[in-house]
Amino acid sequence: MKKYIRGALCVTLAAVLAFTAAGCKGKKENVSKISAYSAEEANYRLNIENTAVHGISDMLYGVFFEDINFAADGGIYAEMVANRSFEFTELAKDNQLYHWNVTDGALAEVKINDTANSLNKNNPDYIVVENKDDEPRGIENTGFLEGMAIKEEGYNFSVYAKGLDSYGGGLTVRLVAGNKTAAEGKIDKISDKWEKYTLKLESSLEESENVRLQVLIDSGSAAIDMVSLFPQNTYKNRENGMRADLAQLLEEMKPRFLRFPGGCVIEGYDASTAYSWKDSVGADENGKPFEWNGKYGDVAARKQGVDIWTDIKATDDEWPSFMSYGLGFFEYFQLAEDIGAVGVPVLNAGLYCQGRDGKGVDTSSPEFAAYVQDMLDLVEFCRGGENTEWGKVRASLGHSEPFELKYICIGNENHSEVYYKRYSLFLDALNRAKKEKPELYKDIELIYSSGGDDGLSGGEAYLNSYKYAKKELNGSKKATDFAGAVDAHYYNDPQWFLNNADYYDESNYRRSVDEMTDTPYGGAINVFLGEYASWSNNMNSAISEAAYMTGLERNGDIVRMAAYAPLFSSVTARHWAPNLIWFNAQSAQPSANYYIQKLFSSNAGTTLLKSELDGAFIGNRDISGKVGLGTWLTSAEFSNLKITNNKTKEVLGEDDFGDKSSLKKNWEIPSTGSFEIRDGKLVQTETETEYSDIGSVAFFGDTSWSNYTITVDAKKLDGSEGFFIPFAVKDGENAFFWNIGGWENTVSCLQEIRNGIKTGRLLGTTKDFKAETGKTYKLKIEVDKTKIRCYIDGELYVDYDASSGAEAEAYQVVSTDESGDIIVKLVNVTESEKTFAIDIKGADGISEKATAYQVCGESLKDENIFGEDEKISYDELTLEGIGAQFNFTVPKYSATVIRISKN
To answer: Largest CB tally within 10 Å, which of 368, 401, 522, 606?
Structure first.
């Protein structure tokens, strides 16, 4: 949707010119405005210098495809026939005709594992149909999930069939909706050997209720397999192709990479359910290319897989997931190429899903060697010539030229020593291959998993992954000596993303191996943010992700790639939410999050420009409130608590724990943890229970307390960490806390919980610290207006000025690209429109016209509901009257990109 905004053309024009046609679908209360430059009349001042800071990864924004939520079979893969090869017997709970019906007067039986008479050994099941009537009878398919949907357009039908018992008839094929025939075709005669037959069907109806594909035989018996129906209008008109509407939405995002096929899918429960890229392009029982009918990779010669998102042990899974491998690695790479992206495959590391207690194969076993060989053979599949073992498979499928390949992910959300050992073996094998065949493997980089959490909430897997990486680097100055990037995954609340927009800033995430730490930020290794999302599809989550993405782009020198996850979900059956794009059989609905991703990805910069935003950060916070004493997974005792006013020296509160009734009268005791007063000490004895985000704590005092000093003696009795000392406690969802012996008893650091979410940022100085069991420590916290200082036995451990914080009302990042455009990204997370005074220095000849793109919402609860008019859209604005200085007003809850060109 295009909109036009004309602004002030000279500084003497004081009026703000705005049109209700501009911004947020024409809503008067959310209107973008341009006016003459005035820092005084603006909420914020954005100062931009046309000076390069550093490069931004040219693959920063991409998409992640996981075969979840029926994203592949029944989703983007355009095949309309469910259980087309009758291989879905195991998951269908003995329903051999799963998704199939037998028409009146016909008999049908699925032949299981009849390799002697089947189509081929990779497709051992087929169906035998018998008709004793004079009229055509047979079988019909209902399609995936809610059923087939057809339009008034052409469809390509194909089937493998052979006549039995001297059958001399043919096949009748119909598309029917209810009792109406939408299309019909006839194959006059089939032979007594397996052959492929095709028809083109033209539907005369547009229907989505009770649509079936019928395959009927004349009187007699016939064997049928690989029944297929594709719309002729697939994406890019590819045979065995993708749904045009879903793939087009991907293309419009202009992603730089496509990560696939998962996710947990690649891990499986065990060897039989793990994803096999070789099976996805046709392999025999020895993992070698499977040639059938003079061709490699034919979809009819690919084995049936099992999707991990189907509970194979359940008896009540209404929608067990297919993995027909019709959408295989060839099709993934082809799709990536078609949407202008680079394919980034994920391979099994010889480990089954650790999140489901999966184990790994022995690293000395032939099975593990096969997983390593899969990695090497994949490179050959993508890059090898037609004379190579796997290059010929790609060529046989119609792609004689190599696929673009640079990165391979080894494992998904894997962690701990069992993974580190395997990753090292993969890396060793690749390094050997680079020496032996440098022309094939020379610039391939492996991506290393760091588990499935952000590390800022005490995630052990994440932290240990950085410890391992640091150890393996052995002082190297080049992180890429170890890995291409570390694959981080996290899903968090909107507040987390707002609080942590500076997650990868250089002050947190180190760029030098020498400065690399074992703290949550780790640093030095390039980042592949393979999966992230806020926990909903409403505007609140979308706008928080936009704020966070300004930080990703600002740190595009170290954040190499980032992808929202997951990508697709059926509205009928889903395993996971939120998702970027929702669909059913006939239509698709982009979410608010999709439009944010599109906004950033289609306006990606390649060089960061120097910029500074004044007035947007939430500073000078009121640091006042109760105090607390507690632990995390640790038993400890506390004594001699005193809180003193810094100015008057008045004792605001104290407890020597001589009175056991004090616990009930003066302390707020949480629902977890175990507190008691014993021998003049407050004792917390629980070592296993975690309380919220601030441990097992007890609160004391008054929320009005401010400018105070806390002193207390603390001794660890048992457990894995140290002490938690909350202060400035407003309620259970807003407080600072000093974490002493956090992250497996390794560090002293200051953190904050704001609106129920840990900010994650380690505030101020941090120091190594290990709490010794049985030793008493004298702790002191000074809160002086906005300054916080924390001492252990008189030594300063934390020094922090809270007058500036990561959270803000507005966020920005400015970049340029190969076109020379200055690309300004603005995010307003407040409930009112805000004006930016934009001043661009050092850029001559700036045009008075610019193009802007905008996503905004009326309410944080707004979301695009499937089947209803969009509340959130992607709008294009034409701006006039800008130049090097101008004021720009953005709507509430909005993300805007302004592309400013030069004359």
So the answer is: 522
> Which H or E run includes 249?
helix 244-253
**Chain CA centroid to CA 105, Å:** 50
Stated pTM of the model: 0.87
Strands 894-902 and 846-856: antiparallel
- The values of phi and psi at residue 895, to 5°, are -125, 130
Burial class of residue 94, CB neighbours in 10 A (0-12, 13-18, 19+): exposed
pLDDT of residue 637: 97
pLDDT of res. 94: 55
Q: Which residues on adjacent β-strands are paired with residue 163?
A: 222
Rounded to the nearest angstrom, the gap between the alpha carbon of residue 608 and the centroid of all alpha carbons in its chain is: 24
> Is the pLDDT confidence value at 21 over 70?
no
Catalytic amino acids?
A: 413
Element (H, E) at 782: strand 776-784
Q: Which of 716, 344, 728, 391 is nearest to 561 (CA)?
A: 344
Contacts with 833 (C-beta within 8 Å, 6 or more apart), sequence order: 29, 30, 31, 33, 889, 890, 891, 892
Instruction: Round to whole Å and give the CA distance between 48 and 815.
Output: 10
Question: Which one, of 156, 152, 188, lies nearest residue 172 by Cα?
Answer: 188
The model's pLDDT over 314-371, given as tens digits with 9 standing for 90+, comes to 556 677 787 899 999 999 999 999 999 999 999 999 999 998 888 999 999 999 999 9
What digits encode the pLDDT tens for the residues 42-89?
999 999 999 999 999 999 999 999 999 999 999 999 999 999 999 886
The yes-or-no verdict on residue 706 having pLDDT over 70 is yes
Name the burial class of residue 655, with classes exposed (0-12), middle (13-18) and buried (19+) by CB atoms within 10 angstroms of its CB. Answer: buried
Residue that is written with structure tokens 């930080």 in the block? 551
CA gap 296, 301 in Å, rounded = 8
How far apart are the C-alpha atoms of 117 and 109, rounded to whole Å? 14
Furthest C-alpha separation in the chain: 106
Q: How far is CA 70 from the centre of its chain?
A: 17
Residues in the chain: 903
**Confidence class for position 31, pLDDT limits 50, 70, 90:** low
Can you point out the beta strands (E) in 178-246?
Answer: 180-187, 195-202, 211-217, 220-231
- What is the average pLDDT score of the chain? 90
Cis peptide before 494 (omega within 30 of 0): no
Backbone Cα Rg of the chain:
31
By the 8 A CB rule, do 345 and 409 touch?
yes
How far from 653 is each of 416, 640, 642, 731, 892, CA to CA, in Å? 45, 11, 6, 18, 44
Q: What pLDDT, in 10s, does the model give residues 441-492?
A: 999 999 999 888 877 655 678 878 888 887 776 655 455 556 678 899 999 9
What count of other Cβ atoms lies within 10 Å of the Cβ of residue 438?
10
Burial class (CB in 10 A: 0-12, 13-18, 19+), 475: exposed
Q: Are 229 and 241 in contact (CB under 8 A)?
A: no
Pull the structure tokens for residue 359: 């184990």
State the amino acid at position 86 in one-letter form.
Answer: F
